[in-house]
Amino acid sequence: MNGFKTYFTNFKKTFKVKNFIMYFIVAGAMILFGGLGAAGALKRSFLVLLEQMGYGIIVALALSLVVGFLGELSLGHAAFMSIGAFLGCYFQNSVFPALSSSSPFVALLLAMLIGGAAAGAFGFIIGLPALRLKGDYLAIVTLAFGEIVKVLFQNIPVFGGALGIQNKYRYNVNSLYIIIFAVLLLTLIIVQNLIRSKHGRAVTAIRDNEIAAKSTGVNVSYYKIAVFVISAVIAGVGGVLFAGTQNTFKPAKFDYNYSINILVMVVLGGMGNINGTIISAAIITFINVRLGTVLTGNLAVLKDIFYALILIALVIYNNAPALKKFRSKYNLKNGAAAVWNFLVRAFTKKKAEPDPAREVEFGADWSRIPTKVEMDELLSTDFIPETDKPDRGEGGEGK
Amino acid sequence: MNEIVLKTENLGISFGGLKAAQNVNLTVYKNELYGLIGPNGAGKTTVFNLLTGVYKPTNGTFSLMGENLVGLKQAEINKKGIARTFQNIRLFNNMSVIKNVMVGLANRKEYKCNLAQSLFRTPKYYETEIAMRAKAKELLDVFGLLEERNQLASNLPYGKQRKLEIARALATDPKLLLLDEPAAGMNPQETEELMETIKFVRDKFDMTILLIEHDMKLVGGICDELTVLNFGTVLCQGKTDEVLCNPEVVKAYLGE
Amino acid sequence: MEFLTTFINGLSLGGVYALIALGYTMVYGIAKMLNFAHGDIIMVGGYTIMVFFNMTGLPLAAAGVAVVFCIVTGVLIEKLAYKPLRGASPLAVLITAIGVSYLLESLAQIIFGSDHKMVILNHWGTLEIGAFSVSYNTIVTLSSAIAIMIALTLFVNRTKVGKAMLAVSEDRDAASLMGISVNNIITITFAIGSALAAVAGAFYILKTPDVSTTMGSMPGIKAFTAAVIGGIGSIPGAMLGGLLLGIIETACLAVPALAPFAIAIEFGLLIIILLVKPTGILGKKKREKV
To answer: Does B103 touch chain A (CB under 8 A)?
Structure first.
């Protein structure tokens, strides 16, 4: 009892509404839509949209760990998803048919465990190159990995080959979205807990300055692999959930473009910004689905053009060295502060002071992320003196 | 006789044919402020990189409190008790000041909390997190950075960034602190202040400090002992006053 | 004889990869960025050739127009999307390049539709000597690719602009202190890279007369693989890597058991090379200062 009391006081001491607000939103959405669904007030198409949003956000959260917090670019996250999807589906279809028909929930749960574990194992494998490579090079390795996984699935008959796998036990559309939202909530809690711990700080330290992190005692190899594994497990679970929503799906679905779609969600949400990632993933999924019904045929590309332009404009706006001053003057935070000040003044007739105790978030501003992997730094992993040219600190040349 | 903290024996490294550092013998006693000086390209930073595991020595050994550390990785050496700062400041720029220090604290034995405990927020997590935050505040207070603790590290003025780097290094609870040109880019006033800080750190934390510096005023003002490097080898070593008067040292710095 | 045929075909495909890889490697060496949209320049070239060939029926003229159009596109992209980001994090530039690639593909789809189009530039037939048979397309491709590579090597090593390019890739700051306009050099590099991509696009259509919005992405990624295998930033490396990759791919496709896995094998090779020798066969090692 006493232990619980301390736990609670400690919890209260570190509690911040801001960090919990997304939990309430997700849980609230789950209860609201769950209730409406049970009452039969929701159309099937809307339930499918909720499913898509759910697993979309889960996978985006997974990628945001790697891109936003570890500061490495992955162009192959769809592969982790496909590993989860195919293994989970195969497991449900063939290994567990009795359970799948009688207790689909248990089957799905076991499938998530298996799919997540398998994806995690591959996350470990893809984490190994991350120890030696950085930046563009690692991005290309992840891309290559994604293509390899796709080709392998296309050529393994057990998984249906290029024609894809049939999901014999498509989960009931009336309840799957609730399960997906529950998993989403759990994912969100785990991701937040990770980044707001000393382990998360170590990861962001690696992103900010790997050399300094090493000399500050951060075990860089361990954390790089850990982040890749955790991210892969989450993406794999997302894949299993995706499989649950389908009657049949093909390996080609999880191609390079799918990985880019996930990346767009993370980048538009603001790198290293969990809430932003969730919001942008939800909005993008919504727009995709809604526009998909309006824009048909070749017009459907209009939305791709729109995304591409937004992506380019946003990255340039956030990163262009020439716009640095402009950015610091007119950014969202300042805008929000101005609105807040205005409101406070309007209601209390006094000037609001910025709260000095307000915690600065983890590089929520993607413009400031310095993955300065310049040419020199790209290949900086091993320091074998015999093969190297001299480095004498102050730049004195010794040729 | 005082306890020996750092001892290097014939420490050296060569890159291809070039001997960047050779036969460096240092003996640093507890609580000492030891200076490493020498002209540009003399191999001072190379020695630091050897001591922190960035490079592996091609010959010789070094030991901390009698324990041989050759061949360990950077993070392991840090855990054994050698912390450093960098010539060009290397902070975690997108993290707040207090989190910079908390990264350093994370390795201490008293703040053990494994990944699973953090992911599921067991009582242990809250305990260590609160304790770490308190300790970090304490450290920041010592360096006069408490007010700025929630600012981004990159937004600090230059002098405070240097201080934060030292605070972060101290957070790892080192036995030996390596400072790489702490006064680089500072004006005389700031240098003066820095000298006070360094002496203060030594006394307050009971620290042993090895520092690289070009500013002779600073070196002469605070170092107990000096080693002069030139072309990767030791030119002379001894008490500060004697070394600074040595004609060979003057020649190395100013030419004939 | 079959072996020799495969070898020649491999070399020819490798020549195409080498031309694309040169664009990657030069941009990487000089602008220090991974131009992800480079593959889509091939697609732009492909559609330009299609339009002009259908209008005039002259394959060479169409290719010439494509070269010009690709140069304009490449330089425009550089000026509008990449130049503002000079000095920003490479990851930001990479994501922008991905955006540009997306944009080009979507634009092409809006204009030309998503269906594949057949463009048959010629009917030259095949050269047959006994059991040995190689299409004239292959011969033309291989010989032109080699001629272009020789010309490019001479250009880089002998001319003033070429030497300036080498200087910028070695040390941008020092080069600009020597009076070299880094911006101009980068523009020229993009122009050359885009021109090579257009030529590669023409050869690609010769080989497989099929134009689509995504026709550039796979060859683009493979050519990047080739550039990495040879050592990114190195011009001879890109040529060597391209030829090697072409031979490996053709050889894989010639063996029925391996054929479905050809892409997996190529990318597996990329991963292995990056891990074992990240600098590639002819690349130089650079390192981080502490």
So the answer is: yes
From B156, B171, B186, the end of a domain falls on B171
Interfacial B residues in 189-248 facing A (CB < 8 Å): none
Residue A368 Cα, gap to closest chain C Cα (Å): 9
Q: What is the average pLDDT across B206-212?
A: 94
CA distance A42 to A381: 54
Chain C residues with CB-CB distance to A381 below 8 A: 278
Name the more confident of A327 and C14.
C14
Q: Which range (A233-237, A248-252, A302-306) has the least confidence?
A: A302-306
pLDDT for residue A194:
95
User: Any chain A CB within 8 A of the CB of C174?
Assistant: no
CB-CB neighbors (< 8 A) of C284 in chain A: none
Query: By CA distance, what is B180's nearest residue in C?
Result: C290
Hey, which residues 191-230 in chain A have their CB within 8 Å of chain C? 211
Range of the domain at B204: 1-81+174-256
Q: Do A304 and C278 touch (CB under 8 A)?
A: no
Q: Does B132 touch chain A (CB under 8 A)?
A: yes
Domains: count for chain C: 1
Asked if residue B9 has pLDDT above 80, the reply is yes
- Report the chain C residue with the minimal C-alpha distance to residue A372: C89
Q: CA of A266 to nearest chain C CA: how many angstroms apart?
A: 11
B93, A393: Cβ pair inside 8 Å? no
Average pLDDT over residues C59-83: 94
From B146, B171, B196, the end of a domain falls on B171
Q: Give residue A274's pLDDT.
A: 92
Per-residue pLDDT band for A41 (boundaries 50, 70, 90) equals confident
- Per-residue pLDDT, averaged over B46-55, amounts to 93
pLDDT digits (tens, 9 = 90+) for A107-120: 899 999 999 999 99
Chain A residues with CB-CB distance to C106 below 8 A: 301-302, 304-305, 308
End-to-end CA distance of chain C: 56
Q: What's residue C186's pLDDT?
A: 94
> Of chain C residues 67-96, which have a CB less than 8 A from chain A?
81, 84-92, 94-96
DSSP sequence for chain C: -HHHHHHHHHHHHHHHHHHHHHHHHHHHHHH-S--TTHHHHHHHHHHHHHHHHHHH--HHHHHHHHHHHHHHHHHHHIIIIIGGGTTS-HHHHHHHHHHHHHHHHHHHHHHH-SS-EE-------EEEETTEEEEHHHHHHHHHHHHHHHHHHHHHHHSHHHHHHHHHHH-HHHHHHTT--HHHHHHHHHHHHHHHHHHHHHHHHHHS-EE-TTTTHHHHHHHHHHHHHH-TT-HHHHHHHHHHHHHHHHHHHHSTTTGGGHHHHHHHHHHHHHHH-TTTTTPPP-----
Contact A217 B127 (CB under 8 A): no
Give the CATH number of the domain where residue B11 resides: 3.40.50.300
Kindly report the CATH number that applies to the domain delimited by A21-303: 1.10.3470
A299: closest CA of chain C, how far (Å): 7
- B190/B160 same-domain check: no
User: What value does the mean pLDDT take over residues B216-237?
Assistant: 89
Q: Are residues B110 and B157 in the same domain?
A: yes
Q: How far is A194 from chain B (nearest CA, A)?
A: 5
- Residues in A touching C261 (Cβ below 8 Å): 151-152, 155
CA-closest candidate to residue A272, choices B90, C88, B94, B93:
B94
Same domain, B221 and B197: yes
CA distance B56 to chain C (A): 14
Query: Are A305 and C103 a contacting pair at CB < 8 A?
Result: yes
Provide the number of structural domains found in chain B: 2
What would the pLDDT profile of A303-352 be if each residue is shown by its tens digit?
A: 788 888 888 888 888 888 877 777 777 766 667 777 777 777 777 655 44
